[in-house]
Specification:
By secondary structure, this protein is α/β, with parallel strands linked by helices. The chain contains 13 helices and 6 strands. A hairpin with a 4-residue loop joins strand 5 (144-148) and strand 6 (153-155). The longest helix has 15 residues, at 31-45. The protein is elongated, with a radius of gyration of 21 Å. The model is unreliable at 297-304 (pLDDT under 50).
Length: 304
């Protein structure tokens, strides 16, 4: 089997800013939520069988207690924020496994789900469906990969190294040095993407970088200045790495078997009506009927 893990919050943002707004009969904005549900049904129509969707029930997480500038819910368009609970309920009604995060983030759920699924020898491949660079730390060989569905770009471990200059395990260190404006931490002054990659490719971890620039055997400009800056900002760098390191023990499903899509709930017609999308329910039923018509044989895989 193949397992698809979806960043539901990213999908909601993508559809909110990528499709025209739409209000239902009650005057509530539903366009983004409707787009996400339709996109997930499209994933099933493309052959996906085992799917989980991670969402941020709230934007804040335990990381906000560690760094005051970490991203929060301020500045999010109310029309978008109002669809957070709606998309969770709509996806669950459509029959998908949803992992709503409160203490943790959706990214943590994706990392935890990838760890869970990869531990199952029956899982041929785990596809983490998000372009978020944070998730590159979860990539492993060509079995746990990252998929940008919008650009149709698949990135395995070799692809991570090609893009960032470091292996997946070093992505948190790389982000700590470079910073991540989307998550709200600045990195260490002077370290750009290429410099951070060169230093980490040589030394592996932040704490293993020599504190004296004269000891660096990496061809980067201003080694002495960078080493001094890092030495003075080492506590911040290690904190930023902690912010960038995804949790692998977030509350997700216990097994890949639980992620099998088996059809919509009985109330999906009503939910589709709330979304002002009567076509969604027939699509889901056709998919469910097609799945039921496939002979049940544990030795046959239907996700090619």
């Amino acid at each position: 089997m193949q397992v698809h893990l979806i960043d539901g919050t990213y999908e909601l943002f993508r559809h909110f800013y990528g499709v025209p707004p739409a209000k239902n009969a009650g005057g509530h904005e539903v366009g983004a939520a409707r787009g996400v549900v339709s996109s997930m049904l499209g994933l099933l129509e493309g052959g996906a069988t085992h799917v989980a969707i991670a969402t941020d029930r709230v934007i804040e997480s335990f990381r906000n207690e560690l760094w005051p500038g970490y991203k929060d819910g301020s500045g999010i368009d109310p029309a978008l924020y109002s669809q957070f609970p709606l998309v969770e309920e709509a996806l669950a009604s459509a029959g998908f496994v949803v992992w709503p995060m409160v203490e943790y983030e959706a990214d943590d759920a994706l990392a935890s789900g990838a760890t869970m699924a990869a531990a199952d020898s029956r899982v041929e491949r785990v596809l983490i469906c998000t372009p978020d660079k944070d998730l590159s730390q979860c990539v492993a060989g060509d079995r746990v990969v990252q998929l940008d569905r919008r650009q149709r770009l698949l990135r395995d471990e070799a692809g991570v190294i090609e893009k960032f200059g470091v292996p997946p395990a070093a992505i948190p260190d790389w982000l700590a040095l470079v910073g991540d404006s989307a998550d709200g931490f600045p990195g260490i002054r002077g370290f750009g993407a290429k410099t951070a990659a060169a230093v980490l490719a040589r030394y592996g971890r932040i704490e293993d970088i020599p504190p004296n620039g004269n000891d660096w055997d990496v061809p980067v400009r201003g080694a002495a200045r960078l080493a001094d800056t890092l030495r003075k900002g080492l506590d911040d760098a290690l904190l930023f790495r902690r912010l960038a390191t995804l949790v692998r023990e977030a509350p997700v499903s216990a097994s890949a078997d639980e992620l099998a899509w088996r059809g919509p709930r009985d109330d999906f017609n009503l939910v589709a009506a709330v979304l002002d999308a009567p076509d969604l329910a027939p699509r889901a039923e056709r998919l469910a009927e097609a799945r039921r018509s496939v002979p049940s044989n544990p030795d046959v895989r239907h996700d090619r």
